[in-house]
Amino acid sequence: MELPQADIGIFGGSGFYSFLENLKPYKVETPYGPPSSQVMIGELYGKRIAFIPRHGEQHQYPPHMVNYRANLYAFKLLGVKRVIGPCAAGSLKPEIKPGDFVICDQYVNLTSGRKDTFYDGPITTHISSADPYCPQLREIAIECCKKLGLSFHPSGTVVVIQGPRFSTRAESKWFRSLGWEVINMTQYPEVTLARELEMCYVNISLITDYDTGLEGDPNIKPVTHEEVMKIFQENIDKLKSLIIEMIKSVPEERTCPCPNILKGAR
Hints:
The protein has helices spanning 68-77, 135-148, 169-177, 187-196, 225-249; strands at residues 8-12, 21-26, 39-44, 47-53, 82-91, 101-102, 106-110, 152-153, 157-161, 182-184, 200-209. By secondary structure, it is α/β, with parallel strands linked by helices. The protein has a single domain (8-260), classed as Nucleoside phosphorylase domain (Rossmann fold). Strands 1, 2, 3, 4, 5, 6, 7, 8, 9, 10 and 11 form an eleven-stranded mixed beta sheet that branches. It starts with 7 loop residues before the first strand and ends in a 17-residue tail after the last helix.
């Protein structure tokens, strides 16, 4: 079957794509194995959107087992140029509250053993990761948050841990002492792989918890999976509204550095 082309790729939870029109599933094969699921392709505002549930249709792939390379390369085969990567995340700062959105601009990678590059040789390729997130998509996300009146933070550093366990109190205290804002398990290597393929990538972190709690506040308990899902479901409609508004606002032309990342990288 000849694959259709898409303009924007979205990672998210199973069923998250319900706002798309004329949905059809496609099986996409990649040199890196199968993606997390078949790709759902639909339309919105005249744009074709490809969707992959990051953790699989049954949420069967924990963060360290997601085939990030296959997911991104499937988008590449579909012609995707821009990727929206929403995720559930924990807050490391009191002022960043559950239900808030953070449009991250930096990450710190503390994962290990993940396949995190398409360039294993024979040509050595060094991409710049100084500013890993697309500035054009980030600005669109920020403006859409303002337009919708959402509680959000226009920047933040996400520390990416291996998972699937949550942090110890000592680890969380260390992360906070370094000034980082957000904690998550999937941003690396997803954003970097998108960058290697010269795709624009934006992260929208939906804050679901305070990680191991807040020092000095015994009423804030350590994160549990149950609490994460509860807060995420309570705010899923806001997240959908934001992504719909972003899709509506994305221009055809890319004015960011992302399409030229490989220039000078070899």
